[in-house]
Specification:
alpha/beta; D-Maltodextrin-Binding Protein, domain 2; 2 domains; six-stranded mixed sheet; five-stranded mixed sheet; 12 helices; 11 strands
Length: about 325
């Protein structure tokens, strides 16, 4: 090929590329022109569902199009996760993910999607703390006393969770690992059942969410020792964290955040991120979230991606510690 032909070819390629970018830019600027779906992998009415609808409402107000929450339950949230991962990367299908999305890779050897490659993080939205709580009959008043009791009776004390691989289960496994104690895990069908089992005295120790525990604490059926998050809960500011109670570096929370299919236009992700960050951090939204047991926690897409990587790595470590084998 002659030199001038190469020059013409390069000019044509540049024109086509420039045209394509301008089309994408124009399309992104007009986004959205139709309703947006936000899939959530768990049932209607739960804490995560409430958070999803609060975020969807704020997105709808800012974008000028309905953002409709669709509950696609089953398989630990993976049905909704896969549906979004396989959807067109056009900004019209989003995922309101739960923390279970980072536990599934450690529990299932053949997930039909890859969390880190098939989904694009938009923003972390909320976190919810767990309590380290015991039945009132357990003769301890603080975390150090519980650790001493557990060490004196290896494997005798039991702890409940909403199921194998749940966030509360891994909160318990992290406690066992860091405190060097043996507790016998008893999984239940859901969070209410796990909390009630401790309140009824069938189980010694539990890791219920703060909101689920509050009525039981008020009725004197649970005794709270510490909170699992990095900071104290606004709902129980006098209760120390596990980190403050001697388990330096302990941090474990449930969380929810927004993701899109991979390869979604970066300016659309940036726009969605900006709306979520602004909405979650308004005084009104902060107050609403706290009443539901949540704490708003947002950041950049890159920060959310790093957080997801960290969670996947920690969950893999905890699954191995717990002796869980991937299915």
């Amino acid at each position: 090929m002659q030199k001038h032909e190469w020059i013409v070819l390069r000019m044509l390629v540049g024109l086509v590329a420039g045209f394509s970018l301008s089309v994408v830019d124009a399309w992104s600027q007009s986004y959205p022109v139709k309703p947006i779906r936000m899939l959530f992998g768990f049932s209607v009415g739960g804490a995560g569902d409430i958070a999803a609808r609060l975020i969807a409402q704020k997105l709808s107000e800012s974008l000028g199009q309905p953002v409709v929450v669709e509950n696609r339950t089953g398989a630990g949230g993976s049905i909704a996760d896969e549906m979004v991962a396989r959807s067109p990367a056009d900004g019209y299908t989003l995922l309101f993910a739960a923390s279970s999305i980072t536990a599934l890779p450690a529990l299932r050897s053949k997930l039909p999607y890859d969390v880190e490659h098939d989904l694009a993080p938009v923003s972390l939205a909320v976190i919810t703390a767990f309590l380290l709580a015991v039945h009132p009959s357990v003769p301890v008043r603080d975390v150090k006393a519980l650790i001493a009791l557990a060490r004196s009776q290896p494997g005798k004390l039991t702890f409940s969770s909403p199921g194998v691989g749940s966030s509360a289960h891994f909160a318990g496994e992290l406690f066992k690992m860091m405190a060097d104690v043996k507790l016998s895990h008893v999984p239940y069908k859901g969070a209410p059942e796990a909390a009630v089992a401790v309140a009824a005295g069938q189980i010694d120790v539990g890791f219920p969410s703060v909101t689920a525990a509050l009525p039981l604490l008020g009725a004197g059926k649970l005794k709270a020792l510490a909170v699992s998050s990095a900071k104290r809960s606004p709902l129980m500011p006098s209760l120390p964290t596990l980190d403050e109670s001697g388990l330096t570096g302990y941090q474990r929370s449930g969380w929810n955040g927004v993701l899109s299919p991979a390869d979604a236009p970066k300016d659309i992700i940036a726009r969605l991120n900006a709306i979520i960050v602004k909405a979650v951090n308004t005084p009104e939204m902060k107050e609403t979230l706290i009443k539901q047991g949540f704490e708003g926690q947002t950041g950049t897409p890159e920060q959310f991606a790093a957080f997801i990587r960290s969670e996947i790595a920690q969950n893999a470590k905890l699954a191995k510690f717990a002796g869980l084998k991937s299915e």
